[in-house]
Design brief:
Strand content: 5-15%
Strand order of the largest sheet: 1-2-3-5-4
Shape: globular
Structural class: alpha+beta
Oligomer: single chain
Length: 174
């Protein structure tokens, strides 16, 4: 496991080279007293470009970062236009649908600590959008008929109860 400083420096190197970085967070089974949560990844550094950071929960890391990179590249090519929210996107995953939804600030701060640190260091507000992906039947997690087991895999952060402020924060890295 990297120290906080080594992880931060690694992210800064990626941001310098690419313009943004991806931070990966391992699944938590809940054994350490924290809530169980699936693997996820999120971007760091997009705040400096005037874009929200992205988070993808429960999806294969390669697929998640490839899809996220494509969305980011398109936004940057369009002059830094904000991402389209709450609208079905048909061109993110091959033959499937996707959607970006805004993550409540409390969840954003809790699940994307390095993005929060970067936004604060660049005097920008933290804003995070979650990339949602469909079940085998093509339904997004919040849609009627979505596979119940699937809905648990990529929880939609805007539909989860907000974290209890007296509980300790989840660790940034595991």
């Amino acid at each position: 496991m990297l120290s906080f400083e080594a992880a931060w420096n690694n992210l800064l190197d990626q941001i310098e080279q690419k313009g943004w970085a991806w931070q990966y967070v391992h699944a938590d089974d809940g054994a350490g007293g924290y809530e169980p949560f699936p693997f996820y990844c999120y971007t760091v550094g997009l705040a400096a470009k005037g874009l929200p950071d992205l988070i993808v929960v429960g999806l294969n890391p390669r697929v998640a970062t490839d899809a996220g990179d494509e969305i980011i590249s398109r936004a940057l090519q369009a002059g830094g236009q904000p991402f389209t929210l709450n609208t079905v996107l048909l061109d993110v995953f091959k033959n499937s649908r996707a959607m970006l939804v805004e993550v409540p600030k409390e969840h954003a701060a809790n699940r994307s600590l390095f993005a929060l640190d970067f936004a604060e260091a660049t005097s920008r507000p933290l804003q995070v959008f979650q990339l949602l992906w469909p079940d085998q039947g093509g339904r997004l997690p919040f849609e009627d008929g979505a596979d119940a087991a699937f809905v648990e895999v990529p929880p939609v952060l805007k539909h989860l109860p907000l974290p209890d402020p007296v509980q300790p924060d989840s660790p940034a890295m595991q």
